[in-house]
Amino acid sequence: SCEVTGVMKEMPSNSHIHYNFLLSYATLPKWVQEYWYKHEAYTYVLLDSPERKEEIERAFPQLAEKYKTEEALKNKTWGVRLEPLEKIHLNPQLGYEAELKGNRSAIIALIFGAIAILIIAWINYINLTVARSMERAKEVGVRRVVGAFPKQLVNQFLFEAFVMNLIAFVIALGLIELLLPAFNQLVGRTITFSVWFTEYWGILVLLLFVAGIYISGYYPARALLRKKPIVLLKGKFQNSRAGENTRKILVIVQYTASMILLCGTLIVFAQLNYMRCQSLGVKTDQILVIKFPGPTEGMKTKMEAMRKAIRKLPLASKVTCSGAVPGEEVAMFLSNHRAHDALKQNRLYEMLSCDPDYIDAYGLEVVAGRGFSEEYGDDVNKLVINETAARMLGYMDNDDAIGEEIAVETVGEPMQVIGVVKDYHQQALNKGYTGVMLFHKDKIDWIPQRYISVVMKPGDPSELVSQIGEIWNNYFADSSFDYFFLDQFYDRQYRQDEAFGVLMGGFTGLAIFISCLGLWVLVMFSCAVRTKEMGIRKVLGASRWNLFYQLGKGFFIPIIIAVVIALPVAWFSMNAWLSHYPFRTELEVWFFLLPIVLMLLISFLTVAGQTMKVIYSKPARSLKYE
Prior knowledge:
Blueprint: H1 30-33, H2 52-65, H3 104-145, H4 150-187, H5 201-225, H6 229-234, H7 241-277, E1 287-291, H8 299-311, E2 316-322, E3 333-338, E4 347-354, H9 358-361, E5 366-369, E6 382-386, H10 387-392, H11 398-401, E7 405-407, E8 415-421, E9 436-440, E10 451-456, H12 461-475, E11 483-485, H13 486-491, H14 495-529, H15 531-539, H16 544-578, H17 590-615, H18 619-624
Parallel strand pairs: 4-9, 6-8
Antiparallel strand pairs: 1-10, 1-11, 2-10, 3-4, 3-7, 5-8, 6-9, 7-8
Helix pairs in contact: 3-5, 3-7, 3-14, 4-5, 7-14, 7-16, 7-17, 8-12, 14-17, 16-17
């Protein structure tokens, strides 16, 4: 029993740790407070200066030698690595971490995607402004002849860019506010508009706004000012090969970015589909999991009676208790070694407490020996290990491990291995296999049971939940009845990957749309410039396909160049992203072939949509043009 001495505000949503109760460390037994072998403790250190970090890390191994009071891990070097609190959220996930963390590589990829879309939009605005500047060439020429300074012309273009960017900025703010609830639901966070006013984010957005004005306004102005007034007055600026080449380079840049995003999106969804479709080696569907009640008098007797009552329900197939369930880290480590190993090569193994029904209920495949069974009498001093644990113990063949004795930390006598189960995915496929040892729930009493798993028969799950709730209230009325369905619990591990895929897909669609919009504008102005030429070609007998070729070839060559540049970049970047997954899909040819076909098809339709107007127009109208 503990006395309540205070009530705290809820932890902020962006904290890396949340809790319902804080228990004073002094409440723990004296031996626990001084026990250096407790792996489950979180330690926060307030340093008087950042330089002390390296000093503490260097000094810790020597300090730890003094406290190696037990044989376990005595032959290992003990060290610590201090992590700055503000960096914890995006650093790679480690063992025992309290909550699911962010993904730094995913955020970097999304930032690059956002920058790519922004650059594509700026390029389109520049192309559009330069294309329109052909019409405004005479205006600029006249203004320069009558005495306008270059600075005045630059300021005019910058002001136009400012107005355009300001309108876009206001619309963007409105869309952010509108889409924020859906975004929060997608990523599982609570982000508010006020995030822009924290630290440097607001300043960064303003800098991007200013950069957009300068980039999109300055280049078109300089493109006109580089020409002599007499050239502008003659209207010959429109035939500038340098300007045309510049626009083609800009098309290459934006299509390269779109191709990389499209390839990346396909690979992200392929990896997500791969992880979802792979065999887990463990059953997760049709299982209802109930959290253990709080400690109470006669707990063991009540629990056994409740299990028997649940087993009798028509919709319950099997009932088992365990310390962990698939979808989470076992998170109970002990330092173990082979009993007859003279060198005592200790390693940490995940220790999963379970009853004899666990292996059968979860469909684990026994590849050597047997699982726990009440038919054999006393299995309390026995172990069942997975294949990874067998390799870690030094057994190259699974059968070699059967009958061997293992010295288990905190256990007085060695425990015998009676079975080896095939490696299964205790956690999602973005985590590798770990060494797991299953032991009887009555053997190590300080490792708690945490879950009751009920394998369901086909039927109405809500009816089963209602029936179990009634049984629960008969035995543990003082504890809340908390439950979840295992398949949903397991799938939550993929939430970040799903959100990343959806965002990448949205970015890709936006990038392709903007790129095609820019191509549409460029084709439109190209057709306008070459209207008379096309009329002459038609009069001289050119076919429609020949006309389409003449108009479109200048746009397809930059797109093909973009494809050549984008493919190796996409391959290397996505291969690096996939390298973080222990279980990953292969990079198939169609991941890169489909984007090429799609981009060429979209570009063909974009170019064809504009050029058809010129191709099907009457030659007489074309020859009257200008």
